[in-house]
Amino acid sequence: MTGWHGQCSVYAVTRRARHAASCKPLPPVVLIMKSSRSVLALIVAAAGSCGVTLLLPGDTSVAASGAPPLSVEGQLPSLAGATGWLNSPPLTSEGLRGKVVLIDFWTYTCVNWRRTLPYVRAWADKYKSQGLVVVGVHAPEFAFEGQTNNVALAARQERVGYPIALDSGYAVWRAFHNEYWPALYFIDAEGRIRHHHYGEGDYERSERVIQSLLTAAGAAHVSQELVAVEAHGAEAPADVADLESDETYLGYDRAERFASPGGAVPDRGHLYEMPAQLGHDHWALAGDWTITKQPALQTKAGGRVAYRFHARDLNVVMGAATRGPSVRFRITIDGKPPGFAHGVDVDEQGNGAVTDHRLYQLIRQSRPISDRRFEIEFLDSGAEVFSFTFG
Fold first, then answer.
1. CATH number, domain at 111?
2. Rounded to whole angstroms, how far apart are CA atoms 51 and 29?
3. pLDDT tens, position by position, 173-225
4. 264 and 228: one domain?
5. Of the residues 219, 235, 251, which one is the last residue of a structural domain?
6. 23 in a domain, yes or no?
7. How many domains does the chain have?
8. 182 neighbors 110 (Cβ within 8 angstroms)
9. What CATH number is associated with residue 363?
């Protein structure tokens, strides 16, 4: 999710490159450097910003157990900018001193964060008794994610039981100089940032860092086993080998590849039509819609959205514009009900209903994966559609 505050789609998957990425770094590596310290100072600063660990001559930070080498990336910034807290009284950087802390920046509709959650949840449960404190910093991408009630509901639905700092004003985000959802920052018992990871993946290394920091803090009998995670629904890992569609926004602020004839008409109602053909990764509207900065608002029953995609999973971030009755919808794939390719939020006939603002998983298909035409028709008025994501 590139935009005004950050990026959610950190996988950066295209036909040409499929690798976990953030700020387009090299994969996590250890570089053995033998140059002069003055030159290395510049290299360390540049490498640290993209998560590359530099092992200098004589560095003894690698534990005998094989734990990853850790540098000091700075001090844990203040959490005082949080606009509220869930699951906990307000926490402070000073009050967390003596604990190993994992900071997890998230926003609840981000599918990339959803796929990391099973691991973060498991680490919070496994290592809590040994001194690990997980703090989820919720920095909203969409306006509705800034509403405390919506975050609290999402936390209950996704079983996020650890402390949550509400960062609706992005004060904590800015204090960390963060740019991504999800982003993990690993803090030692002295309040120092020792490691970070942007996006999905690299779970074994992340857990080894936690184990290493807990051991260094004096925790006894820290298990060296890794958590076993069985993820389902939107939390299941993406099928990266077949993922050829990019996250796509419907609001005019960040919309791309819109194919309805005549283009978008911002901020006023318009009768849109489907094009004769949809190209790969293009989308279109039909019916009465108002395209606003963030969502496309469907103003009359019968409005449709079509998307030509190539992925195992198709998800839509959407909600009902007003509280009250749900907005019924029906989906098709290549003009037919999805059958066994239906996601968790629809049945085999493609029937579903929009209630809360959240991520809806609508398609999960089996291989072979090919270009398919997805279409959703809203049987009632009042749906707000924000984005498509894939997996």
1. 3.40.30.10
2. 9
3. 999 999 999 999 999 999 999 999 999 999 999 999 999 999 999 999 999 99
4. no
5. 235
6. no
7. 2
8. yes
9. 2.60.120.260
Backbone angles phi, psi at 128, to 5 degrees: -60, -45
What is the Cβ-side half-sphere exposure of residue 192, based on CA atoms within 13 angstroms? 10
Same domain for 331 and 189: no
Give pTM, 2 decimals: 0.85
Same-domain status, 154 and 291: no
Do 222 and 330 sit in the same domain of this protein? Answer: no
Query: Among 65-79, 210-224, 315-329, which is the least confidently predicted range?
Result: 65-79
Structure tokens at 220: 């006894």
Inside any domain, residue 157? yes
Query: Measured at the alpha carbon of residue 184, what is the angle toward residues 246 and 312, in degrees to the nearest 5?
Result: 30
Whether 160 and 309 map to the same domain: the answer is no
Same domain for 217 and 308, yes or no, is no
| Contact present, 155 and 87 (Cβ < 8 Å) | yes
End position of a domain, from candidates 209, 235, 261: 235
In this structure, the answer to whether residues 203 and 341 fall within a common structural domain is no
Examine the domain organization and report whether 271 and 252 are in the same domain. yes
> How far apart, in whole angstroms, are the C-alpha atoms of residue 293 and residue 253?
5
The count of C-alpha atoms lying within 13 angstroms of the C-alpha of 84, restricted to the half-sphere facing its C-beta, is 9
* Dihedral of the alpha carbons of 352, 390, 344, 108, in degrees to the nearest 10: -90
Look at residue 69 in the predicted model and tell me its pLDDT: 82
Q: Find the domain containing 70 and state its range.
A: 30-235
- Mapped to the 3 state alphabet, what secondary structure does the chain carry? CCCCCCECCCCCCCCCCCCCCCCCCCCCCEEECCCCHHHHHHHHHHHHCCCCEEECCCCCCCCCCCCCCCCCCEECCCCCCCCEEECCCCCCCCCCCCCEEEEEEECCCCHHHHHHHHHHHHHHHHHHHHCEEEEEEECCCCHHHHCHHHHHHHHHHCCCCCCEEECCCCHHHHHCCCCECCEEEEECCCCEEEEEEECCCCHHHHHHHHHHHHHHCCCCCCCCCCCCCCCCHHHCCCCHHHCCCCCEECCCCCCCCECCCCCCCECCEEEECCCCCCCCCCEEEEEEEEECCCCEEECCCCCEEEEEECCCEEEEEEEECCCCCCEEEEEEECCECCHHHECCCCCCCCEEEECCCEEEEEEECCCCCCCEEEEEEECCCCEEEEEEEEC
Does residue 7 belong to any structural domain of this protein? no
